[in-house]
Amino acid sequence: MALFGYDYQTRRRREALALFLIRASAVLVLAILGGILAFIFYNGFSAITWDFLTQFPRDGMRAGGIFPALLGTLLLAVGSLVIALPLGFGAAIYLAEYARPGALLTAIRLGISNLAGVPSVVFGLFGLAVFVGVLGFGRSLLSGSLTLALLVLPTVISSAEESLRQTPQSFREAAIGLGANRWQAIRQVVLPAALPNMLTGAILALGRAAGETAPIMFTAAAAYTLALPDSVFSEVMALSTHIYNMATSGTHIEEARHLQYGSVMVLMALVLGLSLIAIIIRARLRRGRQW
Amino acid sequence: MVTATQTAISAQNVDFYYGDFQALKNISLDMQARKTTAFIGPSGCGKSTFLKLLNRMQDMVPGARLAGRILLDGTDMYAPEADPVAIRRRVGMVFQKPNPFPKSIYDNICYGPRLIGIRKAADLDIIVEKALRAAALWDEVKDSLDKSAMALSGGQQQRVCIARALALEPEVILMDEPTSALDPIATSKVEDWIQEAAGNLTIIMVTHNMQQAARVSDFTAFFFLGELIEYGPTDDLFTSPRKKQTENYITGRFG
Q: How far is the alpha carbon of B196 from chain A, nearest alpha carbon, in Å?
């Protein structure tokens, strides 16, 4: 029935079709994701034992565990966070709170978002040239952490700046109105309010970086080392490069298949764990902080 | 009462610009100490802009420019040597929308005192109680001082903001439409506070509500299109306005 020249039945049919397509794409995405997870779980679960997590690889990586790689990845993650967090939050505070709007600020923002899109292998080569080469840190925990820090910085800055901008202007006004100077207002009122979201963004970025392969391969990772790192200048193993090595450069690739899947599972659990931590931090710090 | 009138804040030939736009034109106005002065006028007339000049809150706005002088107790608050932070401690502000910090009630009240270095718990306890009593909120919140101020009702939040400003014992309190975001009951509590504070504190408020101006203020200033049209004792202004524009506005013919 057409009322005022409008066909309600057609409209309803279109609505139903649109809803179906949207639902279907959501289900499809979930199915693909679930499929990948199930596949890895199915193939790798048998490899996961306490020994697998706590022992060194043996027999040309055909047996044994992944302890040094797991430790290396954790250390690299912590190292890059220690470097990227203060730098990134500092830059974000400057951009959100102090920088005057204008061509320069626009250019800086554009640069940051472009950096976020640069392939990670480019960061890896940069790290190799500058940290490993020019600065002479060698292939080390330090070089790898610095490279990963550079990789995550754009994301850390953008998400932190966004969180700061979402903090109500009225908080700043209230603090300034009570005789705070700008920095006091930021440190005592704005930052505490924005911190949950800033941390969440940083940890999510870190989760992605922890799985990166190329930057670490060039700057930090040993294919195989019996020594655990004893300083920031030590070479380390890392999960991502370990998986790459096991799957491509061993002499018994097929025999070690279940170990590869096991390592992938551990890496994924690590990344998901980081996301989970991010969610928990946000939920905790946010309690009673709605505005 | 035979106290001589005394000027708390004196604006002299104030012009104010946002970029190229002139928001205020040649405003001269003496606001009396320990009285309540209300600014009324249609939206965009410059009354809030003017209010925020009185404790240098406009400093935060990029591209703003001021000509003329604003004297706080005889001293030019825009002189190069004047410290905006010190001025804001003497001239407190309560905003249109209650804006407590996402902290406890106690920490909200203590924010200003802590900024000036008061740290001892015993001192702060006294300040908090005094400020909350002055804002007529003590009885309602004395048992939940560590609760988040965000959890209070809108009217209570606004009184937390008043108490937070009072904790610095300012000479003047500026209020920018302090009840426009509140329901009638909360509004009357804030108005009660204004009336109780009158005589001890200089209050300068912006309001859209002419009944409110008539109820609580001693003096009223009517702004229109960036100009001060009329200023005088509230009773005179509302009963026998001297200017046609004022009369039109208060009788509801425009605005």
A: 22
Instruction: Name the residue among A175, A179, A288 with its Cβ closest to that of B150.
Output: A288
Parts of chain B with a pLDDT under 50: 1-2
Residue B1 pLDDT: 41
pLDDT digits (tens, 9 = 90+) for A28-45: 999 999 999 898 888 888
Q: Report pTM.
A: 0.80
Q: Are strands A2-3 and A6-7 parallel, antiparallel or unpaired?
A: antiparallel
| Residue A4 lies inside a defined structural domain of this protein | no
Chain B positions in Cβ-Cβ contact with residue A195 (cut-off 8 Å): none
Contact list, A177 vs chain B (CB under 8 Å): 55, 57, 88, 92-93, 95, 165
Per-residue pLDDT tens over the stretch A234-261: 777 888 888 888 778 766 777 777 788 8
A106-123 pLDDT per residue, tens: 898 899 988 888 888 999
C-alpha distance from B49 to closest chain A C-alpha (Å): 14
Query: Does residue B61 belong to the interface with chain A, where contact is any CB pair within 8 Å?
Result: no
Same domain, A252 and A165: yes
Pick among B51, B77, B115, B175 to test the A interface (most A CBs inside 10 A): B115
A179/B89 Cβ within 8 A: yes
Same domain, A125 and A223: yes
Residue B25 sits at φ, ψ, to 5 deg, of -120, 110
Domain B7-100+171-250 belongs to what architecture? 3-Layer(aba) Sandwich (3.40)
Q: Is residue A291 part of a domain?
A: no
Please report, for residues A15, A166, B67, B82, the alpha-carbon distance to residue A194 in angstroms, rounded to integers and kept in the order given.
39, 8, 37, 32
Residues A65 and A37 both lie in one domain: no
Q: Examine residue A14 and state whether it is found in any structural domain, yes or no.
A: yes
Cα B170 to Cα B88: distance, rounded to the nearest angstrom: 8
Task: Give B-chain residues touching A291 at CB under 8 angstroms.
Answer: 102, 150
As a whole number of angstroms, the distance between CA B103 and CA B110 comes to 10
Q: Tell me what ipTM this predicted complex has.
A: 0.83
Q: Is residue A233 part of a domain?
A: yes
Task: Kindly state the tokens that stand for B223.
Answer: 């702004």
What's the confidence (pLDDT) of residue A275?
Answer: 85
Q: Are residues A59 and A108 in the same domain?
A: yes
The candidate with the shortest Cα–Cα distance to A148, out of A88, A234, A227, is A88
Looking at the complex, does the CB of residue B82 fall below 8 Å from at least one CB of chain A?
A: no
Q: How confident is the model at residue A3 (pLDDT cuts 50, 70, 90)?
A: low
**Length of chain B counted residue by residue:** 255
